[in-house]
Amino acid sequence: MGGTSLFGPVVLATALWYPGDAAPYAVQQAASFFLVLSLVLGAIWIYALWALQARPSAPLRQEAGV
User: Fold this and answer.
1) Residues 6+ apart with CB under 8 A from 14
2) Which residues neighbour 18 within 8 Å (Cβ) at sequence distance 6 or greater?
3) Pairwise CA distance, residues 66 & 63, whole Å
4) Residues 28 and 15: beta-carbon distance below 8 Å
5) Is the C-alpha dihedral spanning 24, 29, 33, 38 positive or negative?
6) Which residue, 16, 28, 42, 61, could crosslink 66 as a Cys pair with Cβ 3.0–4.6 Å?
7) Are the beta carbons of 50 and 58 closer than 8 angstroms?
8) Crossing angle of helices 25-54/2-17, nearest 10°?
């Protein structure tokens, strides 16, 4: 996972560095893949943080008698 998080921005920056559409097709595909992957993982991460915040902790549930 750590390698993916470092490799994605490097590939994306490489694709953006090429002038115009001169980037090799494989680099364009890799950049698109890692961009979509980072967006999806970011959405999952934000949802997970939101879900953890929305759920009361165990001591609070015990006090409420749930």
Assistant:
1) 23, 27, 31
2) 27
3) 8
4) yes
5) positive
6) 61
7) no
8) 130
The answer to whether 38 and 6 are in contact (CB under 8 A) is no
* CA gap 49, 35 in Å, rounded: 21
Tell me, what DSSP letter sits at residue 20? T
Compute the distance between CA of residue 8 and CA of residue 16 in angstroms, rounded to an integer. Answer: 12
Q: Are the beta carbons of 63 and 50 closer than 8 angstroms?
A: no
Indicate the residue type of 17.
W
> Could you tell me if 14 and 31 are in contact, meaning their C-beta atoms sit under 8 angstroms apart?
yes
Better-scored residue on pLDDT, 46 or 8: 46
Q: What digits encode the pLDDT tens for the residues 18-52?
A: 666 666 788 778 888 888 888 899 999 999 888 88
